[in-house]
Design goal:
Distance between the termini of chain B: 32 Å
CATH superfamily of chain A: CBS-domain
Strand content of chain B: 15-25%
Oligomer: heterodimer
Mean pLDDT of chain A: 84
Helix content of chain A: 25-40%
CATH architecture of chain A: Roll
Largest interface: A-B, 78 and 74 residues
CATH class of chain B: Alpha Beta
Number of strands of chain B: 6
Mean pLDDT of chain B: 84
Number of domains of chain B: 1
Strand order of the largest sheet of chain B: 1-2-3-4
Structural class of chain B: alpha+beta
CATH architecture of chain B: Roll
Distance between the termini of chain A: 40 Å
Order of helices and strands of chain B: HEHEEHEHEEHH
Order of helices and strands of chain A: HHEHEEHHEHEEH
Radius of gyration of chain A: 19 Å
Number of helices of chain B: 6
Strand order of the largest sheet of chain A: 1-2-3-4
Number of helices of chain A: 7
Largest sheet of chain B: 4 strands, mixed
């Protein structure tokens, strides 16, 4: 499907807040809340906050999952703990020229939901975050395209290969 | 199933929520202290729990609720009942709903999980965006198979 071979640049990504590693978790939470973002990028560099990424370098990402596993679960104090202590350091990144299929694979297999987008050339300019929602919008459009495509197949074809119903009760 | 891309293309839109993997869900009662909920989610590596009251689904509590609805100043939050910060009356899906519709609902509310319920409202399971991603990866292997991820961090 051509839609899955589109590049990250073509489908677009999400601007998320950027903070230095010395910022507190409380500061990150405030930005995440106010702007409804699941992550903040942690940068070192010019820190002029103009968002152009000039002179900046990515050192980590701090996500809603980190809030749970590295802050809330160990009962850390958000007013004093810095992002340096609880971020995911040196995260894997995608380049704008990478196909969206890369992201689908990572997100499906490893559960990534926020992948930093960083230029591979020119000093590694930090562009933003490819979120699971950026990807899911493409998949939704893919479904719509398939719905609009004439086909001659019975609606209930063999889907046993993907049928796994787990009714485990958990807690 | 037909692993080929063309087969996947023909069938995709007919797939229902009930045909996809629904992961085991974690349940808590509405009066459970948030600290216990967080510990449970962390131990079981879940991004959400379903909140029940008298056996009925009354809410969902997610990682997003944890950062957006909980006041993390101090330690008082951990004693708070989950009902005070959960998302009440969650949007649900049924096994017969089309996957495309479920996905639209997820995107519209940025909900990563939809509880899947039967006609009586009983919870059958949970559909997550990750299930849909895995389904797409499985249906379009030609586009995706040459992209083995290496083990790495979690973002």
């Amino acid at each position: 499907m051509r839609r899955l071979t589109r590049t990250i640049e073509e489908i677009g990504w999400t601007d998320v807040p950027r903070l230095p590693a010395s910022a507190t978790v409380a500061a990150a939470l405030e930005l995440m809340r106010r702007q409804a973002h699941d992550s903040v990028l942690v940068l070192r560099g010019d820190g002029d906050g103009d968002g152009d990424g000039a002179g900046e370098a990515l050192v980590g990402i701090f996500t809603s999952r980190d809030v749970m596993t590295r802050v809330a679960a160990p009962r850390r104090d958000v007013a004093t703990v810095t992002l340096a202590e609880v971020m995911t350091p040196a995260p894997r990144t995608l380049a704008p020229s990478d196909p969206v299929a890369f992201a689908i694979n990572w997100m499906a297999i490893e559960g990534f939901r926020n992948v930093p987008v960083v230029e591979r050339e020119g000093g590694g300019r930090v562009r933003g975050v490819l979120t699971v929602w950026d990807v899911m919008r493409q998949i939704s459009s893919l479904f719509d395209e398939i719905d609009a495509t004439p086909r001659d197949v019975a609606p209930q074809d063999d889907i046993s290969g993907v049928t796994t119903v787990d009714l485990g009760g958990g807690a | 199933m037909n692993p080929g891309a063309s087969g996947g293309m023909r069938l995709l839109s007919a797939v229902t929520v009930g045909a996809l993997t629904r992961r085991a869900h974690v349940r808590v009662t509405a009066d459970t202290p948030l600290g216990t909920v967080v510990d449970e989610m962390t131990a079981k590596k879940r991004g959400c729990v379903l909140v029940e009251d008298g056996g009925a689904l009354v809410g969902i509590f997610t990682e997003r609720d944890l950062y957006s609805r909980v006041d993390h100043a101090g330690t008082g939050w951990s004693a708070q009942a989950v009902r005070e910060v959960m998302t009440p009356r969650p949007v649900v899906s049924q096994p017969g709903d089309s996957l495309a519709d479920a996905l639209r609902q997820m995107i519209a509310g940025r909900r990563r999980h939809l509880p899947v319920v039967d006609d009586a409202g009983r919870v059958l399971g949970l559909l997550s965006v990750r299930d849909i991603l895995a389904f797409v990866a499985q249906r379009f292997p030609e586009e995706l198979m040459h992209l083995p991820p290496d083990p790495g961090h979690e973002t």
